[in-house]
Structures are given as structure tokens and as C-alpha cells.
Fold this sequence. Notes:
The chain is mainly β.
Amino acid sequence: MKKSVFYFLVFFSVGLVSHNDIKSQLLDQFLYQSEGCRTQSWANVGGRDCNDFEHGEWVLVFEDQFDGERINTDIWHTCIDGWNREHGDEELQYYKDENIIVENGELHLVAKEDPGMYPVWRFEEDGSPYQEDKFFQYSSGWIQTRAKYKYGLFEVKCKIPKGKGLWPAFWLFGNTYELDIFEFAGENTQECNFNAHKWTSNGSISCSSDITMNDPFSDDYHVYSVEWDELKLVYRIDGQEVLTVFRYRDRMGRTLTDCHNLINAHWAFDLVRFPKKPMSVILNLAISDGHYCGPPNHETIFPSSMDVDYIRIYKKISPSRTMTVNNNSDSGVNCFLGGSIFVGGDESPFMIPEHNSLKIIASNEVAIAPETELSRGADVDIYIVQDAHRNNAFISDLDQEDDGWGLSTTESEYMVLESKVTVSPNPGNGPYWVQLGTCWESMEKLIILNSVGCKMYELKVGDRQEYKLGINLPTGVYTMIVEGKGGNFSKTIIVP
């Protein structure tokens, strides 16, 4: 989100376009003309391998359709009482869990007048935390993914509120980088703002752009997304491209748009503000004191809410890509994708720390080294994805029909095999309860293998949805394979 202090900040308006015809508009050539937006470093880009770049077919790696009765805290952090974003008092809200409402298949982040003294965290000069009470006029809601992601397609369908002082946003943050997929000033919901920040000890190196429509965005639900890879950021609204920002340029100022011409250039200008590290995904509704928009006035309606239908994250999977996940892997990334993936491949045992999550998605095979260790409280999910493809990854709000095996088929030929299986307790000792989910009628066999591939257990399934496995397995990491008419997929079982 925008802050009150900007370094080298320049705004560009994309111009006025109709609600039904958001034209694809490439702004990068304009952004490059600004001294602030082109803050860059000279980088050696030769000697790289294009196979190491994000490529392949889109696979769904995260989705929340908010079908329950409360926010799923296994995948989301909330702004707990006492932790609030205060930057020069430019935000007037106190974030509270009770302002996060899930009902009727939607998430509602509710801003309301809620005056009172609330405890906030402060810090001594030596960094020691302490709490003190502060007066807040308003309260609101914030959620943030527990996992961090590096590259992917990030998409939300939501309806933003209108009203002076309201400040809804969908953004990524982490490792000194910030990527604002959208943020709105509540008094002007015809204008959608985009931004990318690189935070330093002196403030923010950032560059902002916006697009304006005839009809306010607050009138209806819209799908907002950004595609982020090593080379570019592509912003889309309702599936149509509205802004592309390229990361690299050659010494003549020409954009380097694919890995081959980048490598051939050997040296290139690299945008400092371009995000390069893993980030969490955030949805929130703030109240501005006037630095960004607002502040609220007598016409601002409270309570107001940001209404979210779903959020989805996709990553690219390449059948030809082989990956090793070990102690040298990026510790900030929780999701690894490839054709074949090997977990624990260096000389020292691979340890998954407490409360960390690790998701492995492969199209061919997954192998886990026997010495791999999982701390109690850590979480591991392994998926074998077959025939995963999406010819048009940006068609949103599709009518999906379940063919009985978790394969969603649409006019865009989108097919993703997703695991519907849950095992509990996991980690834990048997016996185990296995829930096959909505596609259980197409499942035929359940097999448990140990870390070296020996069969430990086999069960015929298909006549009911839930099974109790009365087995006790030795300490170790096991793979449960579910075979069915549509293919196979797997889930890891950890026995501490």
C-alpha cells in the first residue's frame, strides 16, 4: 500500500476507458521515461539457463472460496489485537478479528466506527517490545497468507466499498518488497491504482500507475490479477491486460522480454523496485487519515465492507523441469513445482521446521530422501498433477462442472487434478481417518508406501467416503497414493 513518504514517485494515468472495453495498454515505455520509475542497477545476466525460468502450464496451488463459517487460520494470518500498521498515524483503523466475517460463500472485511482505547505494540531503542494503549476511532479487517510465494498468477474476485477515507487493497509484501495489485481511494472508485515498492532505510523506491473507468469499480464485482515472473509484471482486470512492466532493459533502453534475448544481452539494467523475493498475499480494508485518501467525513457510510468471492494463486509447472528441495533451497518459498522433484538431496538431512508448510507439486514423480526430517507442527502436502493445462489462464469466473474426479473442465479447456483427500492425525500415529472428499466415487484403491517405495498397506475404496485405517506405522515419512479413473495423486503421511 502507498505510504506517506515517497522517493522518486511519479504517477501516470492510463486514461479513461469504458466499463465494457478495458483496452490492453502497455505503460512500460512511459514509466521508463521517469527518472524515479526507472531507478535501476547494472546486472550481469549472462550465463543463465532458460530452463531455470518460470515456464510451463498453469497449476492452481492455492484457493479459498470462503465456504466455511469463519476464516481458515491454517492458511491465513489475521491482524491480531495489538499488532497494527501505524506509519505516521496515516491509518486510522484498529484491526480486529471480529471484523473478518465469512458467510454465504464470501469473505467480508468490515470497517466500522468503533471508538475506544486499544493496546498496540511499541518498541524500545534496543528493539524490546512493549504494549501501550492508543485511541482508535475505527476498526477493520486484514488477512495475510501464512505461506510466501515467489512468482505466479495472483487473482481475486471482489467488490470494493465506496466512501471517503476507505482504502481497500489486494497486495503482496515481504523481504523489503511490496506489490500492490490494486488499491482504491474510496472517494474515487472509478480509478484503480497499481504500485511496486522497494523499501529501504530511507523510505520507498516506488512507481505508481492507475486506470480510470466510466463506471465506478464499486458498482460490481471485478476480477483483479497480476502475473509475476522473472521478467515482467502483467496486471489484468476482468481478464484484460491493463498494464505491463518489464524488469530488464538493454543499454539502448529496449525491453528484454524473454529469457533468450536477456541472456544474449549479457548485461542489462535491472529495475530496483521489481519484486525479486518471496512475498505473502494480503487483503485488507484500511481507513486513511488523508495521506492516501480521505479522511472519512459525514457522508462516509459505516459499516462498509470489502466483499471477496474468492482468491486463487497459480504457478507454472513444466514436465521437463527437475528440482531438488534441500537445505540450500529458498527458505521463503513453500511451494515447489516441476516434472520430477526430489526432497532432501544434499549431504545434510533436510529439516522442515515447526509451523512451516511445504507444498510439492509434480507432473511425473516425487522422491523423498529417508533422512528427511519433519518437526512436529510442520505441514507437508505432495500432489501428482496429471494433464494440467490451461490454454487461457486469465478467463475468470468460469462455469465449472465436476466430472467426478476433481477435474474441472471449462470452455477454456482448464483441467487440474486436485487432491481431495485429508488424513488425520497428520503428523501423528495411527489409527488414521481418511476423508476422500466429493470425488470419492471415482477412487478405486488406496496404497501406502514407505520412503524407499515398499508397500506397507493397501485398501480398496469407492463404496464410502470415509475410512479408518487401523494401522501403526514406524517413525518415518510415507506416501499415500490414491488411484482412480481419472489418474493418481498422493499425500504425505508423517509419523513422528
